[in-house]
Design brief:
Length: 293
């Protein structure tokens, strides 16, 4: 049943490789738990009691509430799939509640630090320098995810309308605008790329020094290397720049629904976490400026 569900995610839902791997690992972990605690019980016959026992086991092993909730979400999707295919009559996760979890505020780079990187830092005037700057400008200028950027193709860019076509989570497509200075950088990058690779056949926008499609860990290392020089925040990753994009927009008066659409969030709840940073900023201003604070 697990393999059938994974095939469904892969070929029908067209979920991202990361999602598929996470779901597969969660289900294998639950299956291993059942094999140990209820050896004769198939996964399709598991009840809410076995699921709750697994949650307790995970909690005893010091798994974080957020991690456990993600595993519960995996089981919800799995048994919902089985119910639709008539493999089970009832979804056992209906009687299972998610754990209360504290979600930390998203880290973001201060505007001055990011502007120092983009406007003051001397990127090398070659293919690698223009590519590295392209990565950071795209992440901050559009707020797209790391996986969305690595899969971005040259044909996805509409220079006339200053937009890019992004294939997001769940294979959902959206159009995201970018600022007017990006086409100039894009043109320079493509010129350097063409001279660096004489037989460039790759349709992807960002490529490695060998001309292959950029991969997530390579982008992560590149972005962290530059952020290390300009900010001291704890987390310095491509996703932090996405958080920075959203936080800066909100701090400058952007509508929350518009930010939701730009980020490709399925619901407003996922976007509302950025309002907490704004409230924290207001509290700081209040404490510094109010006579009785």
């Amino acid at each position: 049943m697990i393999n059938t569900f994974i095939k469904f995610l892969t070929y029908e839902k067209r979920a991202s490789p990361y999602t598929i791997t996470s779901y597969h690992n969660d289900l294998l972990q639950f299956h291993a738990f059942l094999s140990h605690h209820a050896p004769n019980l198939p996964i399709v016959q598991a009840s809410h009691e076995e699921i709750r026992a697994w949650i307790v086991d995970l909690s005893n092993k010091k798994n974080k509430a957020r991690s456990i909730n993600r595993k519960i979400s995996t089981l919800r999707s799995f048994y919902k799939f089985l119910q639709r295919r008539d493999y089970v009559k009832k979804n056992p996760t209906h009687k299972v509640k998610a754990l209360k979890a504290q979600y930390p505020l998203p880290h973001f780079v201060q505007t001055t630090d990011l502007f120092d990187l983009l406007d003051q830092y001397e990127f090398t005037k070659d293919f690698q320098g223009y590519r590295d700057r392209m990565m950071i400008e795209l992440l901050y200028g559009t707020g797209i995810r790391l996986s969305e950027m690595t899969n971005l193709k040259i044909s996805d860019i509409d220079e006339y309308n200053n937009t890019i076509k992004v294939n997001g989570k769940g294979n959902k497509e959206r159009v995201v605008p970018f600022h007017r200075s990006l086409p100039k950088l894009l043109k320079r990058y493509q010129e350097e790329r063409s001279s660096y690779f004489l037989h460039d056949q790759t349709p992807y926008l960002l490529v490695t020094n060998k001309g292959d499609q950029c991969y997530p860990m390579m982008v992560y290392r590149t972005v962290r290397n530059y952020l290390d020089q300009f900010t001291s925040i704890e987390k310095r990753s491509p996703h932090v720049i996405r958080h920075t994009f959203a936080t800066h927009l909100l701090n400058n008066g952007a509508d929350l629904n518009a930010i939701k659409d730009l980020l490709g969030h399925a619901s407003l709840a996922a976007t509302q976490i950025y309002t907490h940073n704004t409230v924290e900023k207001l509290k700081t201003v209040f404490d510094q400026a109010h006579p009785k604070a």
